[in-house]
Design a protein that fits this description.
The complex is a heterodimer of chains A (14) and B (256). Helices cover 0% and strands 36% of the residues of chain A. Chain A has 14 residues and is mainly β. The relative contact order of chain A is 0.28. The termini of chain A are far apart. With 256 residues, chain B is mostly beta strands. Chain B has four helices and 20 strands. The longest helix of chain B has 12 residues. The termini of chain B are far apart. Classes of the chains: A mainly beta (14), B mainly beta (256). At the A-B interface, strand 1 and strand 2 of A face strand 10 and strand 20 of B.
């Protein structure tokens, strides 16, 4: 099984 | 005042088609250098980064930086009214509440003019910045689209495994499994058919098939796609424009 990661985990808000 | 004239309406059509199913609306940021967009889908898994450089346009001017909030579905409907080969000019006054869109038929004496109401979009931007890349694959965009479609019949995930001399696309699902391997190939007569793989570190990443289906809607923009992959990081899928790019940043899946 695998889950979907969010981009927020990799990129900070600008 | 912004004014940009495309040699062919088809280019903007293709750009909008590639974006509209992923994000419903976005800000077009216009500067003297061209037009850029950053937008993230609702699930915050897929980010679109568009750059249409000034040189893409037949004519371009932007006296002052303007942000145009555009509903992509609405823009798509209006652009769909023009013929692919028409000149397409977009223009907006400073502080405009509408985008003016003009099609000029190159043969008939016919000019069509539309106004698109602009939206006030609260942009929620991410700082993407420069990213390290462990592996870069360049292949014909149509081949990549076929791989994504073929693998999607098996699973909601597509695993991409890159080693020194090959890229393996793998899907494991309830009905069975699928593997597609591609290797570097130089085609001198048809350079657009070439495949290159450069690797600093082996890669094993999984991505959601649903999002890849959105990405491959950009296939008609460029004969090639460049995929940049880094361990434990979003994949970057880049379609080059005549001057600029449409890039997708896709967050990977993780093992639970």
């Amino acid at each position: 099984m695998s889950g979907q990661q969010s981009l927020n985990r990799f990129f900070s808000a600008r | 005042m912004l004014e940009g004239k495309f040699e062919e309406a088809s280019l903007l059509k293709k750009i909008v088609e590639a974006m509209k199913d992923c994000v419903s609306s976005c800000n077009f940021n216009c500067t003297e250098n061209g037009i850029s967009v950053q937008a993230v889908d609702n699930s915050r898994v897929l980010l679109i980064s568009l750059l249409i450089e000034k040189d893409t346009f037949e004519e371009y001017r932007c006296d002052r930086n303007i942000t145009l909030g555009v509903g992509l579905g609405s823009l798509s409907k209006i652009i769909g009214n023009g013929a692919n080969s028409d000149y397409l000019t977009i223009s907006a006054d400073d502080d405009a509440d509408k985008l003016n869109i003009i099609f000029e038929d190159k043969v008939k004496d016919k000019i069509s003019e539309y106004n698109l109401k602009l939206l006030d979009i609260d942009a929620d931007l991410l700082d993407v910045g420069p990213m390290d890349t462990d592996a870069t694959i360049t292949l014909p965009s149509a081949d990549f689209a076929k791989i994504c479609k073929d693998m999607k019949v098996l699973s909601e995930s597509l695993q991409i495994i890159v080693t020194k001399d090959s890229a393996l696309f793998q899907s494991v699902g309830d009905i069975g499994t699928g593997n597609i391997v591609i290797r570097p190939k130089t085609d001198i007569d048809h350079p657009e058919e070439s495949v290159t793989i450069s690797l600093d570190k082996p890669i094993d990443l999984s991505f959601g098939s649903k999002y890849l289906s959105d990405i491959i809607k950009a296939t008609s923009l460029s004969q090639k796609v460049t995929i940049k992959l880094t361990d434990q990081s979003p994949g970057v899928f880049e379609y080059k424009l005549p001057s600029g790019y449409l890039r997708f940043y896709l967050a990977p899946k993780f093992d639970e």
